[in-house]
Amino acid sequence: MSESLKIGLIGAGANTRDRHIPGFRAIPQVEIAVVANRSAVSSQRVADAFQIPRIVDQWQDIIADESIDAICIGTWPYLHAEITCAALAAGKHVLTEARMARDLPEAERMLAASAARPDLVVQVVPSPMTLPLDQTIRRMIAGGDLGEIREVCVTQTTGAAADANSAFTWRQDIELSGHNTMALGIYYEAVLRWMQEDVCVEAATASISTGERKRPDGSMAEVRIPDSLTVLGRYQNGARLIMHHSGVEVGPSRNEVRINGAKGALRIDVGAVTLHSTPLGEIERPVKILPADYQDWQVEADFVNSIRTGAPVRLTDFATGVRTMRFTDDVWQAWSSHA
């Protein structure tokens, strides 16, 4: 590897432009050397905006470029597995945007490819919404502050799909998104950090409010990914996981997680990124996040640090990504088998 770590961008959507490019540019001796977006025009637009020296027509050109040390995948999920496996075979480190893949078999292929190249760093961009709160929540659960956990309730709703005339998006396209359904996997990954335990999916129901939507070119597309989903799961100790995700909330959006235990409860206001505790028999009060527990977005720095020092990836390693994708697939199977 050259002294300067050279990064190739494959896909340059909003998160790549807003997070990854600034994150990499802030790290000494890291160079974003080349970009391949969906078209030469969009690639050049990104290159001009961020002073990236080169563009290429195809992502395969970045994989074949021996001067590139690592790639950042910012495409939709449909290309994550293919690009990751090709990059690892070519000896390149991989940071891939979430969700990890379209489905569990693709995620398992990615994990197997990474296992075959243990000398390379692989990382999935982590679920970001609760990063500043995660260590405090995990410590309170593990320390017994809540007693035995009885239920975890996730509620996340928007009005993104409420209008039947709104356009068909990539998140509704099963070819691009696969089994990823709204924010299901993102929230499950956060809960997994706190509970440290996989969930057995017991039931799921879902609906698609508008069966066809118009593409940007005017053609009609079938919608096969739900816009309302409710999941029931269970942990080994009998605690329940209840998740409700909706894109058809016409009123104010809701975005919170409640963790109820035998001795108390936590309420996570995800939108405000605040944490509140209610000991049994007492009133709710805010939880102060200690500076030592606070963690903000540092994805690119963590990725580069793992490459340079060999530090293990925590947020998020491929094994955890597979666990999240397994849950997503289990939910898909649960609702679709009864649809």
Looking at the overall shape, the CATH architecture of the largest domain is: 2-Layer Sandwich
SS element count, helices:
10
The helix content is 25-40%
Low-confidence stretches: none
- Name of the top-level CATH class of the largest domain: Alpha Beta
- The fold-level CATH name of the largest domain is Dihydrodipicolinate Reductase, domain 2
User: Residue-averaged pLDDT, rounded?
Assistant: 97
The class by helix and strand makeup works out as alpha/beta
CATH superfamily of the largest domain: Dihydrodipicolinate Reductase, domain 2
Q: Strand order of the main beta sheet, please? A: 8-11-12-7-13-14-15-16
Rg calculated over all Cα atoms: 21 Å
Major beta sheet, specifics? 8 strands, mixed
Given the C-alpha coordinates, what overall shape results? Answer: globular
Reading the helices and strands in chain order gives EHEHEHEHEHEHEHHEEEEEEEEEHH
